[in-house]
Amino acid sequence: FKDTNLLLIMLAAPLMISTIIALAFSGVSSGASPISNIPVAVVNLDEGVNVMGSMVNNGNILMNILIRPTTDSTNTADTTATPDETCAPLMASTTTTQQGDLGNLISAVRIADAGLARAGVEDGSYAVAVIIPKNFSQSITYTGPTSAFNPVQIEIYGDGNRSISAGIVRSIVEGVNNNILAGNIT
């Protein structure tokens, strides 16, 4: 306490560090997220499975949770794609009507072809492509006493320069997939 230089450093250093941290994370305290509208391409190749006479498509459930329903004319879909490559979320009579909203965290569109989705990630149009395999529902759905759950991989194809965004989308897909699997086991 006798050295005035050390006393100034002792008081100024925490204030400077606090200011730097506050400036770096200032949007978080106001409710805004520094990560938002992550562009995601969703490819649903799932063919569904017949369960006791009704068709179940878990790929549609996952896709509808990722793709936010659009009610306005500002669609974030790739305007160069053909109508078969992007479309509104699928909600048919053959799917269960579970739907979630991820707010402004992700901005997902449906792409019909996995190759187009990967190309979109490589050219920077999307941060992540979520590719649901064709046997997704068949592998994780209980169809009767002789059925077994088989491991299935959902491909998360991410841009290496956007690894945080890819990790966020991967966590969301894992969480939704775990909930679907838990419901199927139950």
Description:
The protein is built from 6 helices and 6 strands, in the order ααβββαβαβαβα. The strands form 2 sheets. Strands 4-1-5-6 form a 4-stranded mixed β-sheet, sandwiched between helices. A two-stranded antiparallel ribbon has the order 2-3. The model is unreliable at 71-100 (pLDDT under 50). The chain is elongated and about 85 Å long. By secondary structure, it is α/β, with parallel strands linked by helices. The N and C termini lie far apart (66 Å).
| Helix content, binned percent | 25-40%
Measure the end-to-end span. 66 Å
Radius of gyration: 22 Å
Based on the structure, what is the oligomeric state of the protein chains? single chain
Unreliable residue runs: 71-100
Task: Trace the largest sheet across and list its strands.
Answer: 4-1-5-6
**Biggest pleated sheet:** 4 strands, mixed
Return the average pLDDT rounded to an integer: 74
Please provide the ordered H/E string of secondary-structure elements: HHEEEHEHEHEH
Using the alpha-carbon principal axes, give the shape.
elongated
